[in-house]
Design goal:
Radius of gyration: 18 Å
CATH superfamily: Pseudouridine synthase
Number of helices: 5
Mean pLDDT: 95
Largest sheet: 10 strands, mixed
Number of domains: 1
CATH class: Alpha Beta
Distance between the termini: 24 Å
Helix content: 10-25%
Strand content: 25-35%
């Protein structure tokens, strides 16, 4: 079962675990289990995904419970009226804050499209281990607010400024991924969709949906000496 974060007559938000598809795709045509299939079974009714999360990521995922609600939520995402906040643990010490506006494309046959991510450094850590050419291993906890929703945007943008996410097998640093696995026990991409904020399209009230910190994040917070709960 998926943990439910919020539910009303038209919408439901769930806490997506890492490794689970939002819905079946052609690339993973043989996999029948997805967030959509689990929620349909859990609720005994149809659900409609209105945005996506990377398979390797975890966190807040919003669904509609009927087609009219799906249209309303899709419009909010299209108009960039849903504010998405991610947290990631990355290699190196990032700047205190900044904006990444590197255009991205879906694949080599697609056109580049605007992509904007704002970030803030939350905490830093330095461990007495030599990884690669440096004498110590440095990491940062970074908060990322996306203004667009391109494929793997957070992962690709952070890599573009030389701070790949720990545990990222596609865009990450292999040496730090191995160190993360063997020494820190990092077994997955450390990217969390922590918050969704928007104005409810029916009530007009502000709505904030937030997931709790996963256990593996909390374990690393303790290892790094970060007092974050």
């Amino acid at each position: 079962m998926l943990p439910i974060l919020y539910r009303d007559s038209g919408f439901i938000a769930a806490d997506k675990p890492t490794g689970l598809l939002v819905h079946p795709t052609r690339i993973a045509a043989g996999e029948r289990t997805s967030c959509v299939s689990l929620l349909r079974e859990q609720l005994g009714r149809e659900v409609f995904p209105v945005h996506r999360l990377d398979r390797a990521a975890s966190g807040a995922l919003l669904f509609a419970l009927d087609r009219d609600s799906a249209s309303e939520l899709t419009r909010l995402f299209r108009e960039r009226a849903v504010h998405k906040t991610y947290y990631a643990i990355v290699r190196g010490w990032v700047a205190e804050a900044g904006t990444i506006d590197k255009p991205l494309r879906k694949d080599k046959d697609s056109e580049y499209r605007p992509a904007v991510s704002r970030f803030e450094r939350v905490a830093t850590a330095e461990l007495p281990y030599a990884v690669g050419r440096y004498a110590t291993a440095r990491y940062s906890l970074v908060r990322v607010m996306t203004e667009t929703g391109r494929l793997h945007q957070v992962r690709r943008h952070l890599r573009s400024v030389f701070h790949p996410i720990l545990g990222d097998r596609v865009y990450g640093d292999g040496r730090h991924n191995r160190f993360g696995l063997e020494v820190l026990g990092v077994e997955r991409l450390l990217l969390l969709a922590k918050e969704l904020e928007f104005t409810h399209p029916r009530t007009g009230s502000p709505l904030r949906i937030e997931v709790p910190w996963p256990r593996d994040f909390l374990a690393l917070f303790g290892r790094f000496g970060w007092n974050i709960r």
